[in-house]
Design goal:
Elements (H helix, E strand, L loop, with lengths): L1 H28 L4 E6 L4 H17 L3 E5 L5 H13 L6 E4 L4 H5 L8 H5 L11 H6 L1 E2 L2 E2 L2 E7 L2 E5 H7 L9 E2 L12 H8 L1 E2 L5 E8 L2 H11 L19 H15 L7 H7 L4 H6 L3 E6 L4 H7 L10 E5 L2 E2 L6 E10 L6 H11 L2 H9 L8 H4 L23 H5 L3 E2 L7 H8 L3 H5 L5 H22 L7 H20 L9 H35 L2 E2 L7 E2 L3 H9 L1 H31 L7 H9 L6 H11 L6 H7 L5 H10 L15 H9 L3 H13 L3 H9 L4 H29 L3 H7 L10 H11 L3 H24 L12
Parallel strand pairs: 1-2, 1-3, 8-13, 10-11, 14-15
Antiparallel strand pairs: 3-14, 4-5, 6-14, 7-11, 7-12, 9-10, 16-17
Length: 805
């Protein structure tokens, strides 16, 4: 029995071992699930819907996992997509829109979708709205599968305000003209605006009739509606047309709508006085009509809940057609693209087709976030339009199908990959038009001239030859050899003993980490930057030889080069001496041996420790035209002579000075802000003062010298090395000012605060013109070097006590 038992036991053990081995082999051979990276710019409300859809997608495709990586800031989203692709770490699938996809498609960064569509049974691209498909196509290939189309020619209106004014609700059949037409009454948009506006007893507007999401939206809508345009072709424009009469007239009327007729708050009133967005003003009933796309509906539903305080009945309608019956308005839209770097293109197509298909579109539509790009889904009751089972709070807006009616009249802006660079020139100075400080014609004429020059330059660049890296490496080697030769040439005749040679070898071994780091991370990039300054390079596509054209463009073609250089020089000339003088005065005051001085030193020094971003946000509040600290001190409660004088100089008499919105005072405001950091210079000055021997002052006292005499004969001469240090470092630092402009003004108004470094940043990281940015960096290097050498050359006024010359 025992023998039988042992045999059975051994057989069972072998069976268990074999089963375990088979299980291990099966587990080892099992495939790991594929992970797709998915990037969108959607915000919190949309992300919840997307996450729900992704869970369903993973359930239906168990071998695929999706990692959602949102970048909610739309202003930097496309720039980051470019950067991620350049770094070879792009997402597999990403959200994209008509204005930016071609920059990737033309560089081969994203895949055409036609091959995927052709081998997908039952897929019908004709089911999508044709305009959104056409605008996402490039050279006959579709690169973005549309998720939604988003007409911006929609007006949200307050029914309560219309009832109070005795005006019938708009039905979309109204029109607009450059003059009021009272005989048409509610059929005339301008007449409706005149009836809806409210003023107080002092004649000040307390409720505006209308507001677009941003001023240029109204101008663009009026331009398209009246037959104007911005370029001769959308996919590949060759001519800028922003200064044509129809566009100029539309832009001027948009400015008058705000600053003359006062039907709409201007940008200063919105951000500076009311401290609210146009959407917030509509919800708070300070405006009666609001132009924007449908994507604001979820937030509107949250803010305006039926039965709760603050609710009023609201709906949407189409923006009015022009007087001649022409109807056209800007539009947005988005979809999903597949990056070329994906390791799983078929799985990426499955995700794209799912999110830009019935499931994804239906989920986004039911949440009121996006109008489906497939027309049949957009017209299905209970999906986009309210249905019998739609909850009460989601029935708004009732007339949501106006979005479908708007599609035939949508207009997309130019989608060429080079257009963002041209468009940057076209937007220059528009803030002066919106604030009423300038007429539209001269601004648009200058914009067209500068934009056309940039467009012509980029069209020429399409035919550049590849950069010859053999010559480039040879030139880089010559530069390195020249540096080494310049460094060691003076030492060639010096004789060293064996001991000295051994000490030198040991020293080089100790500093080798620094030498390697300096060569790899500083000298190497500098040489590459110098080589690229003669090339056209966007990091993504191979560099192309441009010769000295980058430098020629900076000096001859690009008006922003000299503008930014002038702005930087003016800032430097005023801010550096003022900063040194302020630091010196504070140092003299706080170098006294009295109680509490350390506390005051700390108080004055702490602001210089704050980050530039935080300081810029603080000063933006200080510069607020209505309730900012600076204007409160200048104007008081009842105005002042100084305040009235400043307002008159700014060209806005009777209004508080808008420091950051005024072409004449934005840069002086920045210069004034630079004194915020005087505490850092103060500490250096105090160190210099405390380094002056006290016996000089004692001798001067015995000779009968007063305070001024001691300062002139002792303090100032012996402090000159510290002053010289502050002067040199101050000039270098002021040439590189960037953050204040980036955070507070984005270079405006009319480029009056577009510092050189800010322009350099835009060229390099927003437009990816690394070659042109490299040329600009070397120009800046040369300027700083020349100015510093001049300062040292004329530094004979500096007194060094130990100097034996």
């Amino acid at each position: 029995m025992s023998l039988i038992y042992r045999s059975i036991s051994r057989a069972a053990n072998r069976f268990v071992f074999a089963l375990a081995a088979l299980l291990c082999v099966a587990l080892a051979s099992a495939k790991e699930p594929i992970t797709l990276q998915f990037t969108v710019w959607d915000g919190d409300i949309s992300l919840k819907v997307i996450q729900t859809c992704l869970k369903q997608f993973e359930q239906e495709n168990p071998g695929i996992k999706v990692k959602l990586e949102p970048i909610p800031d739309y202003n930097v989203y496309h720039q980051k997509m470019m950067t991620l692709y350049a770094a070879n770490v792009p997402p597999d699938v990403a959200m994209m829109d008509p204005g930016h996809f071609q920059a990737l498609a033309a560089k081969g960064a994203i895949l055409p979708l036609n091959p995927f569509m052709d081998k997908t049974p039952g897929f019908d691209i004709n089911a999508f709205y044709k305009p959104i498909v056409d605008t996402h196509s490039y050279k006959g290939q579709l690169y973005v599968l549309p998720r939604d189309i988003a007409p911006i020619g929609l007006i949200y209106y307050n029914k309560k305000a219309f009832r109070e004014a005795g005006i019938p609700y708009p039905d979309g059949t109204w029109t607009w003209d450059y003059k009021i037409r009272p005989e048409l009454k509610e059929k005339d948009f301008v007449w409706v605006c005149q009836q809806l506006i409210k003023k107080n007893s002092e004649g000040k507007v307390v409720r505006w009739a209308f507001a677009s999401d941003y001023p240029e939206l109204l101008a663009r809508t009026l331009t398209y509606s009246s037959g104007g345009d911005y370029a001769d072709n959308s996919e590949h424009p060759t001519k800028v047309t922003i200064a044509q009469p129809k566009t100029v007239r539309a832009y001027q009327y948009a400015s008058d709508f705000m600053n003359v007729l006062h039907y709409m708050p201007n940008s200063t009133e919105t951000t500076g006085v009311l401290m609210a967005t146009s959407q917030q003003l509509f919800v708070s009933e300070k405006i009666c009509m609001y132009q924007n796309g449908i994507w604001v509906v979820p937030q509107m539903r949250k803010d305006l809940v039926p039965g709760k305080e603050g609710f009023f009945d609201w709906d949407i309608t189409l923006f009015p057609a022009f007087a001649d019956g022409t109807r056209a308005a800007p539009t947005g839209g988005s979809g999903y693209c597949i990056f070329r770097g994906t390791q799983h293109p078929e799985e990426a197509w499955k995700l794209t087709k799912f999110m830009a298909g019935p499931v994804g579109m239906t989920a986004m539509a039911k949440a009121g976030i996006a109008q489906p790009a497939i027309k049949s889904i957009a017209l299905t009751p209970g999906v986009w339009a309210p249905g019998p089972t739609t909850p009460k709070e989601q029935e708004y807006p009732h007339n949501i199908l106006a979005t479908d009616q708007a599609v035939p009249f949508v207009r997309f802006g130019p989608s060429a990959y080079y257009w963002p660079s041209v468009n940057d020139r076209l937007n220059a100075g528009l803030d002066l038009v919106w604030s009423g400080q300038s007429k539209a014609e001269p601004i648009l004429q200058a914009a067209q001239k500068n934009g056309q020059a940039r467009l012509d330059s980029m069209l020429v660049d399409e035919h550049l030859s590849p950069f010859n890296w053999t010559y480039g490496i040879f030139a880089g080697a010559l530069i390195v050899g020249g540096i080494l030769l310049w460094t060691y040439w003076p030492e060639r005749k010096v004789k060293y003993s064996n001991r000295e040679k051994n000490e030198s070898r040991a020293a080089y071994k100790f500093i080798s980490p620094w030498l390697i780091g300096m060569s790899v991370f500083t000298l190497g990039p500098m040489i590459l930057s110098l080589l690229m300054s003669f090339a056209d390079w966007d990091i993504i596509t191979p560099a192309r030889w441009r010769g000295v054209q980058n430098y020629v463009e900076a000096g001859v073609v690009d008006p922003l080069f000299w503008k930014s250089m002038t702005v930087t020089f003016i800032y430097t000339i005023f801010s550096v001496p003022l900063g040194i003088l302020t630091a010196l005065m504070l140092a003299l005051l706080l170098n006294q041996k009295i109680k509490g001085v350390p506390l005051f030193r700390a108080i004055y020094y702490v602001p210089s420790l704050a980050s530039l971003v935080a300081s810029s946000l603080i000063w933006r509040k200080i510069f607020n035209p209505e309730n900012g600290l600076l204007n409160t001190l200048i104007y008081g409660q009842h105005g002042s002579w100084l305040g009235d004088r400043l307002s008159a100089i700014a060209g806005t008499p009777g209004k508080h000075l808008d420091w950051l919105g005024s072409e004449k005072f934005a840069l002086p405001g920045m210069i004034l802000m630079s004194l915020w950091f005087a505490g850092g210079g103060m500490i250096i000055m105090i160190a210099g003062l405390q380094n002056i021997p006290q016996h000089y002052y004692e001798a001067a006292t015995l000779d009968g010298a007063g305070i001024w005499g001691k300062f002139k004969a002792i303090t100032l001469p012996l402090l000159t090395p510290t002053l010289f240090f502050a002067l040199v470092t101050g000039f270098i630092g002021s040439f590189q000012v960037f953050t204040q402009s980036f955070v507070m003004t984005q270079g405006g108004p009319n480029d009056t605060t577009r510092f050189y470094m800010y322009k350099l940043y835009q060229n390099a990281f927003e437009q990816l013109r690394m070659g042109y940015a490299s040329a600009g960096a070397w120009v800046l290097f040369a300027i700083i070097m020349v100015v510093t050498l001049i300062q040292f050359r004329v530094s004979k006024w500096v007194y060094y006590e130990a100097d034996t010359r």
